[in-house]
Amino acid sequence: MSASLKGSNSSKFQVSEFILMGLPGIHSWQHWLSLPLALLYLSAIGANILILVTICQDPALQQPMYSFLGILSVVDMGLATTIMPKILAIFWFDAKVISLPECFAQIYAIHCFVGMESGIFLCMAFDRYIAICRPLHYPSIVTKALILRATVFMVLRNGFLSLPVPVLAAQRNYCSRNEIEHCLCSNLGVTSLACDDRRPNSICQLVLAWLGMGSDLGLIILSYILILCSVLKLNSAEAASKALSTCSSHLILILFFYTVVVVISATHLAETKAPLVPVLLNVLHNIIPPSLNPMVYALRTKELRAGFQKVFCLSLEKKTRHQRPSP
């Protein structure tokens, strides 16, 4: 084993670094997956930057719904950047070594960004609830001040809720193995190497997940039940269809996000004999939503597509103006 060990005495050792082995069972050809993963990462960064630029430059998009979408884009870029550079370094340069502080910092960042994404989905559900069920009060309720307070609350909430996970992981005794069958530092993957009892970590992660994402999902479901009840009371089928169409993009992303979270949790708890499945799902869950979110909104939101056209036309105008010869 390529362990780097340091001894506190002759009989007790503590590993000083972990080795991220990559995708279990396919180490010999996992580097071939680097190209699609790199393309997903570049598309996630490029598409989310485009959304941010479009929202900032188009006055028609200066609305709360698009403000939350802009915040979601920042969170998506943070989540993708937390894991993808290290994964690509493993695949391309065999840079598998990661220090303990870096590993625990990555655990914290992943939990933080995933929790914030869940929180932003809740904010967007609340925005749609007020817009459809309380349309006359919408301008006075969903203000810039509310968006700022909700964003700060989500950052602080997830910052504090995520803290116990890496702190408890850092308190475990890693005395023998240091090879993690993963591309990133996951809490369960890291603590599975501990020589002492890791049950407090598993219980803590489960409780915090239910407190954070569980409560978010419950409130999102409640919001959409109330939205559906309100829509069914509308006399016009056209008005009902228009109201539901404003929620369709949001619903697609929520279903994908929480379904994958549940599947990953179930495969970890079941301790499947195919370890590649939960590891691959874990990696894809951290990179596909940042790539998928902008595409879904771009395809299903007419105002956003119009904003993209304005940005592209403006950039083309500037380019032709610079290329035009001066008289």
UniProtKB/TrEMBL annotation:
Top-level taxon in the UniProt lineage: Eukaryota
Q: Which residue ranges does the record assign to the G-protein coupled receptors family 1 profile domain?
A: 47-297
Keyword Transmembrane in the entry? The reply is: yes
Gene3D superfamilies (alphabetical): Rhodopsin 7-helix transmembrane proteins
Topology class, membrane:
Multi-pass membrane protein
Its annotated compartments are: Membrane
What keywords is this UniProt entry annotated with? G-protein coupled receptor, Membrane, Olfaction, Receptor, Sensory transduction, Transducer, Transmembrane, Transmembrane helix
Bilayer-spanning residue ranges: 38-56, 68-93, 105-126, 207-231, 251-270
Instruction: Show the GO MF annotations.
Output: G protein-coupled receptor activity; olfactory receptor activity
For this entry, list what GO says about its biological process. Answer: cellular response to lipid
InterPro entries linked: GPCR_Rhodpsn, GPCR_Rhodpsn_7TM, Olfact_rcpt, OR51/52/56-like
Q: Does the keyword Membrane apply?
A: yes
Q: Which PROSITE patterns match?
A: G_PROTEIN_RECEP_F1_2
Q: Which GO terms describe its cellular component?
A: plasma membrane
User: Which PANTHER family would you find in this protein's record?
Assistant: OLFACTORY RECEPTOR 56B1 (PTHR26450:SF69), OLFACTORY RECEPTOR 56B1-RELATED (PTHR26450)
Record's function text: Putative odorant or sperm cell receptor.
The name of this protein is Olfactory receptor 56B1-like
Source organism:
Panthera pardus (Leopard)
What does UniProt list as this organism's lineage? Eukaryota, Metazoa, Chordata, Craniata, Vertebrata
- What is this protein's gene name? LOC128776249
